[in-house]
Amino acid sequence: MSTEADIVQLIRGVVGDDPFVGLHVPSIGEREKARVLECLDSTFVSSVGMFVTDFEQGIAEFTGAAHAVAVSNGTSALQVALELVGVRSGDEVIVPTLSFVATANAVAHTGAVPYFVDSDEETLGLSVDAVATVLRAARRGPDGPIDSATGRRIAAIVPMHALGHPMRIAELVALADEYGVPVVEDAAESLGSRVDGVHTGTFGRLGIMSFNGNKILTTGGGGMILTEDDELAWHAKHLTTTAKLPHRWEFEHDEVAYNYRMPNLNAALGVAQLERLPDFLEKKRALADGYITAFADVRGVRFLSEPAGTTSNYWLCAVRIDGGIVARNAVLEATNDAGLQCRPFWNLLHRQAPYRNLPHSATPVADALYESTVCIPSTPGLAAA
Ligand SMILES: *Cc1c(COP(=O)(O)O)cnc(C)c1O
Fold first, then answer.
1. What residue's CA is closest to ligand 1, atom 6?
2. Is there an atom of ligand 1 within 6 Å of 185 CB?
3. Closest alpha carbon to 49 in 38, 58, 61
4. Tens digits of per-residue pLDDT, 132-185?
5. Domains of the chain (ranges, CATH numbers)
6. pLDDT tens string 258-297
7. Dihedral sign from CA coordinates of 6, 7, 13, 17
8. pLDDT tens-digit profile of 329-368?
9. Distance CA 205, CA 135 (A)
């Protein structure tokens, strides 16, 4: 078993000797400045402007999605996507307990109740077997399976591609189809990640992305809804832009809707970032390769590589530490003391204050992942330094 000091040395060997190395720092260059200035000069800084359309088309092209609808952030994207597949107040939505809190919050914003399920050891994502257990125990209802334990309709399943590593999405969609439950993919972390060449976020009825400052591509704050379905895409745009009926001057709105638009100013930043995405992805992979080599023969530490058959964007590089939460905490302390910004996985959602009294499935794998994982500096370009 290597010591915390060895681990600090190994990371330093890959990322260089800057006194402070952030976990994931955005790269803003001349292209970004030029586009944002262009947007400012146009005065179209808000809800109207060409950058939004350009960014939507760029993301659709990059992911292969038929439609991409830009919105204010990943959380609002997920809330609207859930409403679009028919999730309503009092329904239940299956989510991984190992996720960022936004996954559960988006469910709660619809009035539905999250049901937290265990993770998969290899992919870090939602366990397909654990979902199958919940669905098999459900009884048949008029509009989908009813969770026998809670009496709630299971209205959607939200898999998440943790740290950018694709979960077993094709298998999950096949299972969900069997039970007639729509899948909404939380691909907030996985822009650039694919399974057999197919982009994450395009397997479910809808998928969502986030462009928050810590994601692989940032618009400052922003999100995207992806779908193959023309009608759902139209409705996503309508619902996120106040449901206004087109008219030269009248203000007529045909449903209770949201102002979840992405401002043009943010989209301008996104257009510039998107041009650099292939380079970011290449550099992420080079960094991951550096860590793989560094940790190859280290006892008690295992680098988390992309699952077999997938291409990960390696959004956050991470290692698993043997020795339980005490060893994990020692590594967090030593690395952060040494100027290496490292973080644990999120506290499991079924233990967070707003969600801790809800029924959930057993979570042995998610517990083990939480107690052993340390995310390590992942800014693209670090390895070259
Ligand atoms: C970042 C993130 C979100 C939410 O995105 P915001 O743009 O911050 O609202 C949702 N789910 C996961 C898994 C995320 O990592």
1. 74
2. no
3. 38
4. 999 999 999 999 999 998 999 999 999 999 999 999 999 999 999 999 999 999
5. 4-26+277-384 (3.90.1150.10), 30-273 (3.40.640.10)
6. 999 999 999 999 999 999 999 999 999 999 999 999 999 9
7. negative
8. 999 999 999 999 999 999 999 999 999 999 999 999 999 9
9. 18
Decide whether any atom of ligand 1 lies within 6 Å of the 266 Cβ. no
**In the annotation, is 283 catalytic?**
no
CA–centroid distance, 49 to ligand 1, in Å, is 25
| Three-class SS state of 183 | strand
CB of residue 223 inside a 6 A radius of ligand 1: yes
For the packed helices 264-295 and 30-42, what is the interaxial angle rounded to 10 degrees? 170
Choosing from 71, 100, 208 the residue with most ligand 1 atoms within 8 A of its CB, the one to mutate for a pocket test is 100
Q: Which of 115, 104, 99, 186 has its CA nearest to residue 148? A: 115
**Is the Cβ atom of 124 under 6 angstroms away from ligand 1?**
no
Closest atom of ligand 1 to 78 CA is: 10
Which residue has 């057999």 as its token pair? 196
DSSP 78-94: HHHHHHHTT--TT-EEE
Residue 229 makes CB contacts below 8 A (sequence gap 6+) with 66, 67, 205, 206
- Residue to probe by mutation, ligand 1, list 101, 185, 212, most atoms within 8 Å of CB: 212
